[in-house]
Amino acid sequence: MPGDGRIQHPDLARRVVPADAAAALIGPGDTVGMSGFTGAGYPKAVPEALARRISSAHAAGEAFRVNVWTGASTAPELDGVLAAADGVDLRLPYQSDPVTRAKINAGEMDYLDVHLSHVAQLAWEGFLGPLDVAVVEVSGITADGDLVPSSSIGNNKTWLDRAERVVLEVNSWQSADLEGMHDIYYGTALPPNRLPIPLTGPADRIGVPYLRCAPEKIVAIVETHAPDRNSPLATPDQTSRRIAGHLVEFLEHEVAVGRLPDGLLPLQSGVGNVANAVLAGLESSRFQGLSAYTEVIQDGMLELLDSGTLSSVSATAFSLGPEVAAAFNDSASAYRDRIVLRPQEMSNHPEIVRRLGVLAMNGMIEADIYGNVNSTHLMGSRIQNGIGGSGDFARNAYLSFFLSPSTAKGGAISSILPMVSHVDHTEHDVQVLVTEQGLADLRGLSPRRRAHAVIAHCAHPDYRPLLEDYLERAERGAYGRHTPHLLPEALSWHTRYLETGSMLPR
After folding, report:
1. What is the pLDDT of residues 174-233, one digit of tens each?
2. 91: burial class by Cβ within 10 Å (0-12, 13-18, 19+)?
3. Please, are residues 442 and 432 in contact by the beta-carbon 8 Å criterion?
4. N or C terminus of the chain: which is more exposed, having fewer CB within 10 Å?
5. E strands along 25-164, which residues?
6. Partners of 221 in the beta sheet?
7. pTM score above 0.85
8. Residue 403: phi, psi to the nearest 5?
9. Could you confirm whether 295 is annotated as catalytic?
10. CB within 8 A of 456, min separation 6: which ones?
11. Which residue out of 295, 345, 366, 427 is catalytically annotated?
């Protein structure tokens, strides 16, 4: 509970204030860097107090909005309350909050969707402007003033370094045994002073276990005792299990033909039910002693660590359902030597991802027959969440997989289309597409051959004849035959859905 001795530094212990007092240190127009990554390690009290302050200002006819930077998505206590108070002018680099999403898609909030590995560098380069305040959750403060990170690191190192003033939330709900699980690398620099990053294995530790912050910058500390908020993942359904089965079978084949070692290569997995099903599929496979170099540790990865399927995991955050999070807090010390949490500029670093040879498995909204992938926008214009780290991994992976059910909305939407309505990952970065229908290995295939493979192996039977007909006519009548498209029809499936509620012709 608050006051349980998590603040060991005497001078900093005297800076404890209520959340409302800390929020009063944030002014209209400020840019605020907040901790948080996939619902883990975000501040629990100050954003809500700030939202109340903003609402009071608006009721008095006063303008009050701030810019909010985070690591990735957070939770209703941060994104939700600030968006509901109409308190955010600009949000970056990733979000998943429904209120925030609605504001962005209504044009009431600006949103900058950024590759997660790029955010810290953009901040250091000054391209994003000054950072006025950092609001960062930690799990403790040592007697020397070092900050024990919480359940995510994200961009916290950069926020603490760049901010003019710092507000800390010390959350005693977070396990004290998180101490020692983090690896904060302070060796980054801007060109021309960059040096090689000395990380050669997924479990390497190349930094220090604490965050650093000049004590004079810390203007307030708030004590909290509140859990991270993550929704429990659904039990894998038949569709997810079939996707997982296709992928695991493919990995076994790649080992058999000598393109992958017996222990595979480091795994990266996006967040969600399909990704968790893939992890469950790996647990029931013959693979043992695997490693992961990823962004997020979700429920399935802890299970793989427990079973021995995984020997180590490197990430920047947890994303655990409530029951799993509570169990982890009770036994965190047992994982300390097998889990490494890093800043996201390290967990998502393109050079490290390429050098380690990561196997990247990420979800998508839609793919087209040539292998272009949309992972962010519905019908070309409505943002869903953001690109997150999928681009960091896909472009640099040893193998890049994109996974999705073949249809959505009860079959009214096909995930495999003539042309995607928005491109996040070009055909040059997508090597393998997987749906419950099957798997299309696109390596070494020209565009037309990719199209035939995607339609044959990934499209739903209800849509396969329509795609075959489109491709056949495009191959005869397109302006060019390299990547044949019928431009008047290429996006007509999206138009038909918006007009009739289904991509299937009536």
Report:
1. 999 999 999 999 999 999 999 999 999 999 999 999 999 999 999 999 999 999 987 777
2. buried
3. yes
4. C
5. 31-34, 66-69, 88-92, 110-111, 133-141, 147-149
6. 16, 168
7. yes
8. -125, 140
9. yes
10. 438, 440, 464
11. 295
